[in-house]
Write the structure tokens for this entry.
Amino acid sequence: MTAHVPNPSPPARLRAVHKAYGPVRALQGVDLELGQGRLLALLGPNGAGKSTAIGLLLGLQAADAGRAELFGRPPRELAARQQVGVMLQTAGIQDTLKVRELLELTRSYYPAPLSIADCAAMAGLDGLLERRYGKLSGGQQRRVQFALAICGRPRLLFLDEPTTGLDIEARQALWRAIRGLVADGCAVLLTTHYLEEAEALADRVAVIDGGRIIAEGSVAEIRARVVQRRIRCVTALSADAVAAWPQVREVRSDGRQLEIIADTAEQVVRQLLAADAGLVELEVRRAGLAEAFLELTRARETA
Ligand SMILES: Nc1ncnc2c1ncn2[C@@H]1O[C@H](COP(=O)(O)OP(=O)(O)OP(=O)(O)O)[C@@H](O)[C@H]1O
């Protein structure tokens, strides 16, 4: 990597941003900061304000109050834009062009782009360069979109649902490429509905709901907001009987297995084993990011 003069301004920052569309208050005082070499996952239910936040950072829309900055500059400035790569859900890519032509065109906007061979290797485009974009499968098009996002050697990358429609192998390959970019110092803002994707890639997670950041921290910190344990087993005990025990919050049965959500595991497991000597397939796991996310957003709904 080239040595950069230390720059105190983070790659992306929203400061006390408000944005309304008529009566809809899409963002209500949002602060967000993404540092160099970091991956921030922005999570939220439909309509939470994620696209609006990204739109402001890309300079596609203007804030009603507060500021959006890229590298300390207004997002529309060319110097800021030339350091940014973008993979949005609405791609707007000319589908009569061949993949190689698309890459050449996009590379020409940047001062020091990657070679076509490097883009193809990083995005898994083997054998696709001479194909027309419009004739590719959805997953192949997604990989081309990723190649176009990274071809300018960006220091800041926006990835909006990057792995939607990719098979497991292609998803893992993309995750490897994203990790490589972050290790090289690129800052990445990721939105995803796959919480295991955020869990696998993010240093930090910001949960947005109703236009406000309702939680922010490392994956472990967000996970720790939910202390629950999930206990699974095959038992002769009924779901109703177990649901009445102290520390048990919820019990579900699929007809074969019970799934018990509890505040702590030990006491419930002891009680299960004491009550059913024939109990098998016991499994205890802590809540993941998905459960934490659901609990956080549900808590806001009922607040
Ligand atoms: N151009 C617009 N005109 C009017 N309302 C809009 C417009 N764009 C977004 N909204 C509204 O603003 C709110 C935030 O929308 P936004 O698209 O930012 O959410 P999101 O978190 O990206 O949702 P999704 O996960 O569904 O893409 C929603 O209530 C949405 O209906």
Observations:
- Residues 21, 24, 26, 44, 46-52 surround adenosine-5'-triphosphate (CB under 6 Å).
